[in-house]
Amino acid sequence: MLTGKQRSYLKSIANTMDPIFQVGKNGITENFIRQVEDALEARELVKIKVLNNSLLDATEVASQIAEEIDAEFVQSIGNKFVLYKESRENKKIELPN
How far is residue 80's CA from residue 62's CA, in Å, rounded to a whole number? Predict the structure, then answer.
């Protein structure tokens, strides 16, 4: 569980990031979940965009993905959301206490 300070720190990092995945009308597939998990292992922080043609809500999608891969939901703004998961192999982000 992230503290408010840690969440704010991750938001500041994510502010300059571009989304690397898009959720479209196909929704969330097992392959998509696997790709997000792999990206989180490599980067620890990812931004994902929910396309307008998708009937899904960004916050709902973020919660579902975070629950499935045991990641932390950082924030959702409009149709974009940010997830964080500490990497086991190559830790890059040092969270404040």
Answer: 9
